Amino acid sequence: MPTSTSRAFHARRPKQSGFKSTHNSRRSSKGNGVRKAYIHPSKFINRTPAAARAVEYTPTHLFNDFALTSELKSNLAAIGFTKPSAIQDQAIPLVLDGKDVIGLANTGTGKTAAFLLPILSQIDPRNDRMSVLVMAPTRELAQQINDECRRFSTGMRIFSTVVVGGTNIDRQIRDLKREPHIIIGTPGRLNDLLNRKALRLDDIRHFVLDEADRMLDMGFINDIRKVASLLPDSRQTLCFSATITPTIQTLVHDFLKNPETVSVRTGETSDHVMQDIIEANDKMHKHELLKDMLAKDEFEKVLVFGETKFGVQRLSDSLRNSGITSEAIHGNKSQSQRQRALKAFKTNTVKVLVATDVAARGLDIPNVSHVINFDQPATYEDYVHRIGRTGRGGAHGTAYTFVDKR
Fold first, then answer.
1. Tens digit of pLDDT for each residue in 259-277?
2. Which of 1, 77, 148, 259 has a Cα at 20 to 30 A from 332?
3. Residue 220: inside a domain, yes or no?
4. Would you tell me the crossing angle of helices 111-121 and 70-78 to the nearest 10 degrees?
5. Three-class secondary structure of residue 287 per DSSP
6. Between β-strands 182-185 and 132-135, what pairing exists: parallel, antiparallel or unpaired?
7. This prediction's pTM
8. Which string of DSSP letters, residue by residue, matches 245-275?
């Protein structure tokens, strides 16, 4: 059954049969000539979602069973880690054995710990400086990995640094001169540092590609290849991705040696997310409808997707001026601004986070009650990725997409 919100908005629009697919693609509203797939509005509707079920995984190990250092085991116990997730249970022993690993797992399955824990356990704090390189698609994901690294390695005298765009490169160069054990960065900034001779990769023993599919989607293939070409042949390489595409298969063939594959990926969760469309006459009408929706109590923690950086910022400002607590993340924000916005949303200081697709990639934000597509996504795959941010772990999730009234 539709929710009360859904019923309220159904009354404002004609029946679904009024929609007709007359073309296969349309120009992006960005005006840059980029083709944007036409998605029939019926694809955004699922008013009778399947019951969401969190599948319970029974691990074959406990964290204490792994050959991790005693300090690491103590830290895990202190933060309440006892049973590994599926990707951790299956990947950690392989990484500890020195194998190259392909890990296929959805976001939010614990894959960061799957590579960090065995790597941390193998680092000699006195000798293994500049020995680990982790490459991630976005600044936010790189920072999340660093936060996890510091949490796991408390008191172990293991140091990490983050090198990403949108922040002062001179400060990052100073951080690298201190020779941290672990370098976590985005492809573009890593290559900037290599070009400036501020980063050396001679001693890298562990190379991690996290969310490889997203890095390729974002056009980082050449940056990845350049970095990999400068790494020692004797390194261990770990590649984590949600999907295996032909391009990733080529990367795997070029970068990994006799890799072991661990696949715990599940189907997309959109089948259990309640989905519906909201018709709007024009952009101003969309703004009005959105504010009406967000004023309702059930919209507790809402992720709103927009198409452009400018549009996302303007929408967030408009919501804030209307008394709705909101923050924005997009490419024009500095890293510190993006981190503050993300923290405010995660800690429920603000109710709404307005984001572009690129800025939101790789983020794992718990307890998102609603996803609202203020601007439609470029592809249906992007749509499924967007709405998968709600309804996680067996929780109820709801997604709305604005469409033009016809």
1. 999 998 765 556 778 999 9
2. 148
3. yes
4. 150
5. helix
6. parallel
7. 0.70
8. -HHHHHHHHHH-SS-EEEE-----GGGGEEE
Alpha-carbon distance of 85 to 226, in angstroms, equals 33
137 vs 216: CA distance, rounded Å: 9
- Same domain (yes/no): 99, 138: yes
How many CB atoms lie under 10 A from the CB of residue 279?
Answer: 20
Give the domain-ending residue among 263, 279, 294: 263
* DSSP structural state of residue 57: P
Whether residue 58 lies inside any domain: the answer is no
Name the domain boundary from 217, 247, 263: 263
> Are 76 and 84 within 8 A, CB to CB?
no
Q: How many domains does the chain have?
A: 2
Helix (H, G, I), strand (E, B) or coil at 59: coil
* Helices within 97-245 (DSSP H only): 111-121, 139-152, 169-177, 187-195, 212-217, 221-229
How do residues 42-91 score in pLDDT, each as one tens digit? 888 888 776 655 567 889 999 999 999 999 999 999 999 999 999 999 99
- Can you list the alpha helix ranges (DSSP code H) found in 21-138? 70-78, 86-96, 111-121
Do 13 and 32 form a contact (C-beta atoms < 8 A)?
Answer: no
- How many Å apart are CA 265 and CA 103, to the nearest integer? 9
**What tokens does 1 get?**
């059954």
**Amino acid at the residue 55:** V
Find the domain containing 49 and state its range: 4-53+269-404
320-346 pLDDT, tens digit each: 999 999 999 998 888 788 889 989 999
